[in-house]
Amino acid sequence: MTTLNRFLRDEQAQDLIEYTLLLAFVCLASAALFISAGGSVAGIWTATNSQLAGANTSAS
After folding, report:
1. CA angle 42-53-44, nearest 5°?
2. Which of 12, 39, 40, 56 has the fewest CB atoms within 10 Å of its CB?
3. From CA 42, how far away is CA 12, in angstroms rounded?
4. How many whole angstroms separate alpha carbon 46 and alpha carbon 53?
């Protein structure tokens, strides 16, 4: 019984769990940001590619 009470009162790993949850939240938020920014980057890449192709045909 005393071992169970000691286990329930022990808060030694609480900080580790909190930091792990915080890190998981930051990772998920970063992934969501990168996924949403991917569409913008694709649009910029497409516009730049078409402008370079147009410049290449007019220079030839």
Report:
1. 20
2. 12
3. 47
4. 11
SS3 34: helix
Prediction pTM value: 0.52
Q: Any idea which residue has 């019984």 for tokens?
A: 1
The model's pLDDT over 14-31, given as tens digits with 9 standing for 90+, comes to 788 899 999 999 999 999
C-alpha separations of 15 from 20, 26, 32, 45, 58 in Å: 8, 16, 26, 44, 63
In the Cβ-directed half-sphere of 2, how many Cα atoms lie within 13 Å? 0
